[in-house]
């Protein structure tokens, strides 16, 4: 016969004892750990505290992995994973995100971002800002939310005016006479690149991929390789952040402007720098430019 010490009862066999332990309120067994608790509260605390269990005590549900449990918390229980805190409702969680300096949160869109720069990029996008920066190119008529977006448009070669990255580089060399955002030593090298166009043919196939003959990177298609060659990837870094404590370098004016607008280094706090950089874009916008 089998005997239950806790209940002081005999059973005909171990099968009957096992059924008793599974059904009796005096037995609260964790089958994974093989531990018997005298109360349901004791078993529940075990589930909550044990690293072996991924348990939601609010729903009395078990999950296979901690990631699954965390996803459940966020979906069902107004949970902030970064802070490990639960809130009573969606409004409480929203206010937590809005007021906490730890989170990069757009209250209007109720969206979190991974970094302050990503949040700033979102706030500076057309979602929150009007397209108030017109393209000065003849025959274009498009408008953009920022100077960086305008310059990227001009550099892309998609402007109806025929603008290109080479034109933008040449324009900057002619107008940035004080070298606020350009490195004169590297401008000499960059100047020789205006007339250079790299174009790959089928001969770039090396048996596995289309290979760039400048950096030897491989591409799946010839079009992808030519897109790579048309990018500023192999041009000199002629642009430089004007802040003395930063001086980060860039191959394209649009990249520099995105860096400035992201406020990563605080360069926009200096009025003299703002004036010098805005003067360049302002000179573009004061007239309908002809690209040659």
Automatic annotation (TrEMBL):
One of its GO terms (molecular function) is DNA-binding transcription factor activity, RNA polymerase II-specific. Keywords: Metal-binding, Repeat, Zinc, Zinc-finger. Signal peptide: none annotated. GO terms for cellular component: nucleus. Residues 54-77, 78-103, 104-133, 210-239 form the C2H2-type domain. Pfam families: zf-met. InterPro entries: Znf_C2H2_sf (IPR036236), Znf_C2H2_type (IPR013087). This is C2H2-type domain-containing protein. It comes from Mycena pura. The lineage of its organism: Eukaryota, Fungi, Dikarya, Basidiomycota, Agaricomycotina.
């Amino acid at each position: 016969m089998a005997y239950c010490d806790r209940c002081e009862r005999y059973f005909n066999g171990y099968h009957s004892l096992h059924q008793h332990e599974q059904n009796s309120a005096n037995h609260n067994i964790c089958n994974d750990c093989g531990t018997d608790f005298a109360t349901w509260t004791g078993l529940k605390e075990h589930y909550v505290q044990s690293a072996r269990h991924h348990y939601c005590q609010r729903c009395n549900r078990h999950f296979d992995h901690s990631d699954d449990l965390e996803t459940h918390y966020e979906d069902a229980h107004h949970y902030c994973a970064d802070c490990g805190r639960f809130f009573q409702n969606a409004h409480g969680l929203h206010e937590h995100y809005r007021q906490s300096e730890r989170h990069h949160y757009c209250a209007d869109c109720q969206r979190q971002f991974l970094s302050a720069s990503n949040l700033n990029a979102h706030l500076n996008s057309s979602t929150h800002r009007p397209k108030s920066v017109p393209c000065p190119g003849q025959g274009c008529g498009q408008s953009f939310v920022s100077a960086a977006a305008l310059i990227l448009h001009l550099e892309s070669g998609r402007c109806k005016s025929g603008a290109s990255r080479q034109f933008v580089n040449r324009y900057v060399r002619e107008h940035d006479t004080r070298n606020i955002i350009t490195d004169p030593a590297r401008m000499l090298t960059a100047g020789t690149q205006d007339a250079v166009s790299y174009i790959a043919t089928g001969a770039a196939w090396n048996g596995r991929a289309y290979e760039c003959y400048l950096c030897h990177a491989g591409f799946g298609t010839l079009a992808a390789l030519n897109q790579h060659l048309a990018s500023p990837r192999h041009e000199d870094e002629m642009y430089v952040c004007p802040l003395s404590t930063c001086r980060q370098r860039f191959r394209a004016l649009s990249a520099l402007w995105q860096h400035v607008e992201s406020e990563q280094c605080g360069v926009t706090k200096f009025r003299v720098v703002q004036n010098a950089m805005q003067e360049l874009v302002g000179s573009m916008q004061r007239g309908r430019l002809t690209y040659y």
